[in-house]
Amino acid sequence: MLQQYHRIQVAIDGSAEAELAFQKAVEIAKRNQAELMLVHVIDTRAFQNVSSFDSAMVEEVSETAKKTMAEYVTTAQENGLEQVKFFIEYGSPKTILGREFPKREQVDLILIGATGLNAVERILLGSVTEFVTRNASCDVLVVRTDLNNRPMVTPKK
To answer: Beta strands of the chain (E only): which ranges?
Structure first.
């Protein structure tokens, strides 16, 4: 029996890990003739710490996200994918990516980049990737390698 996916979600956050997840998601969507949904979450909790909350700041972040996501859609289409669209969501990345969006859009596969947090950051903040893998009601592919299955090389600091 061959597993067929129909609605694939990929988390886009601007990181190198998310880029790898996007590349693999395009290939998987093409093989499955599936719809690819690119999801970017603007973490509204980050704006709560700004003393003079400015709605123009949220609009600016949203416009930048829209432009970036449109570029991803174009790239996916140039690589032969027909069914691709993007979503910009507002709130907690963990709950949106792991629970709310997959349920609302009937996602059957989530691709997400491996976490870039170190052990202390994971304890204090928690990893979005970890939350998604624990809480999603569909299959989750945590991407750690490029299209040739070579581990991502991170520069030494």
So the answer is: 7-11, 35-42, 84-90, 109-113, 139-143
DSSP-based three-state secondary structure for 57: helix
Listed residue (96, 127, 92, 99) closest to 113, CA to CA: 127
CA angle 145–147–152, rounded 5-degree value? 30
- Rounded to whole angstroms, the Cα distance separating 154 from 84 reads 29
Rounded Cα distance between 90 and 43, Å, is 6
Residue 148 CB contacts under 8 Å (≥ 6 apart), including other chains: none
Do 108 and 78 contact (CB within 8 A), yes or no?
A: no
Task: Give this prediction's pTM.
Answer: 0.85
Alpha-carbon distance 85 to 73, whole Å? 6
> Would you say residue 70 has pLDDT above 60?
yes
Q: Is 63 left (phi over 0), alpha (psi -120 to 50) or beta?
A: alpha
* Cross-strand bridge partners of residue 145: 151
